[in-house]
Write a structure and sequence with these properties.
Layout: H1 6-20, H2 29-39
């Protein structure tokens, strides 16, 4: 299985916001970090 890194997720998020619109930035970085850590367990 292929896992995205934190940096890849942030970049993907930025690209999708540019393409489809929305608010830039991540509201809760800790939730993103938790989600990424959970996937690898």
């Amino acid at each position: 299985m292929i896992y995205l890194t934190y940096e890849q997720v942030i970049e993907l998020h930025s690209v999708l916001i540019q393409k489809f619109g929305g608010m830039a930035g991540i509201r809760e970085i800790s939730l993103l970090e938790s989600a990424l850590g959970t996937v690898k367990e």
